[in-house]
Amino acid sequence: MPAEKKPMRYAHPDGYTGVCYCESGRFIVTAGSDGDVRIWESLDDDDPKSINMGEKVYSVALKNGMLVTTVSNNIVQVHSFPEGTPDGILTRFTAEANHVVFNNSGTQVAAGSSDFMVKIIDISDNSQQKTFRGHSGPVLSVAFDPENASSSCDGSVFVWKIADQTRVINWLLLNKHNDVSLTSSICRLDWQPKTGMLLAIPVDQTVKLYERETWQNSFDLSDNSITKPINIVSWSPCGRYLAAGSADGSMVVWNVTTKECVERLQHEKAFKISAMAWHPKGGKIAYTDCEGNLGLLEDILVDSGNKKPTSSAAPSFDELFDEDDNDLLTKDAQDHVNLSQSSPTRQPLMDDDEDDGDSVALIEDQTDDGDQAVSVPTVPEPVRYLGPVPTPQQKPFQPCSTPSHLMHRFMMWNSVGIIRCYNDVQDNAIDVEFHDTSVHHAMHLSNVLNHTMADLSQEAVLLACEKSDELPSTLQCIHFSSTDANKEWMMVMPKGENIQAVCLGKGWAAVSTDAQIIRIFSIGGVQKEIFSLAGPVVSMTGHGQQLLVSHHRGIGFDGDQCLGIQLMEFGKSKQILQGVALPITRKSYLTWQGFSAEGTPAFSDSEGTVQMMNRALGNTWVPVCNIRDHCKGKSDHYWIIGIHENPQQLRCIPCKGSRFPPTLPRPAVAILPFKLPYCQIDSEKGQMEEHFWRSVLFHKHFDYLEASGYEIDEAAKGQALKEQQELLMKMFALSCKLEREFRCEELSAFMTQNVLSLAIKYASRSKRLNLAQRLSYVAQEKAAELMNVQEVEEDLRAGMSAGYSNFFVMSAATFSTSAGSHARNANILDNMSKVSKKSTGIGNQSTNKPGSLVLKPLAPKRKAKQVLKPIKLSLKFMFSFSCWIIIAHHLMARNCKIQFVIKLYVFRKRPKTGYQLWLEDNRSAILTDNPDLEEQEIIKEGMNRFRVLTSEERMEPYLCKFSSIDLYLRELMKFLDKHGKQMQKHTSLYSLQNEGNL
């Protein structure tokens, strides 16, 4: 049965594209001219993991969890697999490194370069290198196991002895060229696995096989379908079959024992085959072409086992071995099959045992010489559940920065400016550029300490480097907004402590170290607070007085990260989020975190989901955008640099075929819209609901900023409210049209008084009188609620300006107790302001100080001839009603007869007259009756209506009177039922003040 050829798919831009399998066969790894390495779970994987290696990748090799690549800056580098974390540079050449391979054990790599040299590097210690010189042209290919062989553009193939770095033999087989780009074939030669008995070398349209030790040409393999030079050869894991790919797109598989072609396929567009890789268990071949496409051949040689002769060859096999030996052979072969099908975690351990591997391979070769007399049956391995697979923890990163292993990279790109780092042979420097040159001029800094982390604000530039063998981890701050002559300060971390993340805020800087400690500094260099994290830091950002830190909460499983988030406000000295779980998408990792320009926390993950915090809903996270929906290609991404809530903008840099943008040419910024993932978003109802709640979410920052004491744009806030009310009316009209009256009533709960009046009119004109009546009840309830929170008349607020330190002012504050009681202050409520605000409890008040008042619980005692005098209190009320009841009880505990009037006050920035307050509440009613009136006419009409009102009608909405002692007693009894225990303890006035404060 012929092999099945899967349709090819785009993997990289046109150019050389390498491919290999991981040792378990679970992942396909490709590398291309875009500088990325992509990890595919299958050919149908629509979102492969992409790791940027550099500007261009020439070769890739994978073994033992180490991913080695050769890139365009003449280096051979290693990354962890599958995380893609940089693990260092193995070696450098003076020209491009064209090919790299692992040895059998994965302890060494061999690389060939265009500077005519071949190097062998020890993975564990890259200082242990061996250099092989002898080629007179660029080295095209290296094969490394068990002998090192290389081919070059000078037309020669060399076999080297690694121990003494001597040349064993060389063949002049290839055409001579002085440049790799001019060669007709890259001549990817390959050794036979395990034994290395044969070396396969592609020469024009044939494959020459040379025997080990004798180095004689044993035989050649060719096929009539191949019309152009063969580009690559690759042995199957068992060593019996050899695959080849040519420049005309032909792919051929030979049985080396019989020298027959067993598979013959053709590229669908006849493109040159760049690379081929067998699945570790055989039966599949992944291949790539020169246009960057990835393909897969499946079911290769599936019937080869059935075609093996058994009866005719059995006698010859029995002549060599007796029956007992035959049983022993079958057992050994069966053990080999079980080992080859073992779990991926155990297989490398078996590969390291070279003696066992050679002996098994020798038996297989002898079996091949006997025409494959014995067919080893495959026994399915029993399924074993190994438990959930732990997910490797994500490494720390700086938001809005590209990976530190890049030679030219962005260290920071935010709303203030851009920090670039250049680290090449000529220069190692940092450039700081400001979007607004009035903030500061551009700076060019020498990167002497090899800084890898940075942040930028309106006040300073913050740089940090990791520790090295010579230098400790150091923090450097350039405070350019300072008036000092020396604007730079540095801070060296304690011995053994390494900086992993840095950020800047308004007047402060923060660093997080591998000791799970966060250190806070003032912008001038003063050390301030330090505190510990609950896990290793992942990222850290600052905005104003807010600090956002993400960290690991534990070990994730099955591809999920277990992250926590911590949000602090230094200005208020409180923690908003205390290490709660960060809701990133499943099987993803954190790619960006930060704040919007208005100060709302947000983050994004590798699946493209952007989420923002909703402060009004218990600090929950809301997905507001999926940037993957805006990517044109499957390998395209957007690199986030900022978020704006007003206007609603997600500022990103498009990255074609990669996750990170290049520094040159300067990338352009794109703006993406936000979209909440509501249901039925294609319908009119779903679109309006999404638009309304998105508007509500993205304008909550007005409330936060106003509560924090910042000035807000009242016009923008009013425009947002107008937009929301218009959407409510549209949804209301749509619900009326669909005869959903209950839905209309639900929508009315979000409407203002004016819009609710319009909704009532719309319902009446739509002949929905029952709905209009129910909405009128809703309007009355809203009006009653508004009346309960409005201010009193100007004459009741006249005494407020006397001082805000007193929470209560008494108009006639004298009372008498028993004759034996000591004299007290005439105004006991004034004494409350004398208690230090820094006191935190009753225990802090136990020490008497001059001029201070110590409040103690009073136990009622029987007094002879007590004289009860009435007290009339006029209280400016700033506490809850329950707190006022407690204060009244304390007065009654002192045997005072109380007659009282409570007046509720709400402070305003600017006092208004009674008429102004009345007009604000009744303006909508005037406009409803006379929609064509102008502003002056509205004032006149309102004045006419206000004059006809009685004084009680004018005061009623703003003044609550409790003149009946019966009403007081009823309210007191209700409160005592709820707070009886507290009343029995005679809680002090000071603690009551703090409890009742609104």
TrEMBL record:
Domain of life: Eukaryota
Ranges where the record places region Disordered: 332-357
DNA-binding region as annotated in the record: 908-976
Residue ranges, compositional bias (Polar residues): 337-346
GO cellular component, one term: nucleoplasm
All residue ranges annotated as the HMG box domain in the record: 908-976
Annotated keywords: DNA-binding, Nucleus, Repeat, WD repeat
InterPro entries listed in its UniProt record: HMG-box_WDHD1, HMG_box_dom, HMG_box_dom_sf, WD40/YVTN_repeat-like_dom_sf, WD40_repeat_CS, WD40_repeat_dom_sf, WD40_rpt, WD40_WDHD1_1st
WD repeats, residue ranges: 9-41, 132-170, 223-264
GO molecular function annotations of the record: chromatin binding; DNA binding
Subcellular localization: Nucleus, Nucleoplasm
The keyword Nucleotide-binding is assigned to this record: no
Main location per the UniProt record: nucleus
Known function: Core replisome component that acts as a replication initiation factor. Binds directly to the CMG complex and functions as a hub to recruit additional proteins to the replication fork.
Name of the protein this chain belongs to: WD repeat and HMG-box DNA-binding protein 1
Organism: Callorhinchus milii (Ghost shark)
